[in-house]
Design a protein that fits this description.
Length: 177
């Protein structure tokens, strides 16, 4: 990630630069390969009522730009606050992006057919044998228009597949027509 630091109407202090580098490293750790460019501007202002400094943090991400501006009297706390707000905004952008991808997968992903191999209604889960003989886990919450108690081993089902923590799992399951 490229970083540019600017100081306007003031000399850039070493402590500020160090703090910006620390905050940049946090952003890199949490949002690796997402933030493409980061620009930080520290400006001494003449606005007495708003404090003596304005901090502007601008982050370029794919298809978007995030701008955070903070005004006050002390630069370091303003830097921390600006980077905290930036982090929250980046988190929200990624959350929306994941949600959009999930919707696209559900709408555009091909429906797959399988057979209920094992079902455990008391534990609220089961397994589907896919057409390629793989085992696909599903949880009761993935069931559409059917209760887990109504399913039986050998039932034909349709499902949407995703990758879970422990391998392939069904994002939704319904009876095959």
């Amino acid at each position: 990630m490229e970083l540019k630091i600017e100081a306007r109407n003031i000399e850039l202090r070493k402590g500020w630069q160090t703090k910006i580098e620390e905050e940049k490293e946090k952003i890199v750790r949490h949002y690796a390969n997402f933030v493409l460019h980061l620009r930080v501007t520290i400006e001494a202002t003449s606005h007495h009522k708003e404090g003596g400094f304005e901090i502007k943090v601008i982050a370029s991400v794919p298809n978007d730009t995030v701008v955070v501006t903070r005004k006050g009297e002390n630069v370091r706390p303003l830097l921390v606050e600006a980077f905290d707000v930036l982090s929250l905004q980046l988190k929200e952008i990624l959350r929306k992006k994941r949600k959009d991808q999930k919707i696209a997968e559900q709408e555009g992903g091909e429906d797959k057919y399988g057979i209920i191999r094992k079902i455990s209604p008391l534990e609220s889960y089961g397994f589907i044998t896919a057409a390629d003989q793989r085992e696909i886990y599903f949880h009761e919450n993935a069931l559409k228009n059917i209760n887990i108690e109504d399913l039986m081993e050998g039932d034909d089902v349709m499902y949407g597949e995703t990758i879970g923590d422990k391998g392939p799992q069904a994002s939704w399951v319904r009876m095959a027509k």
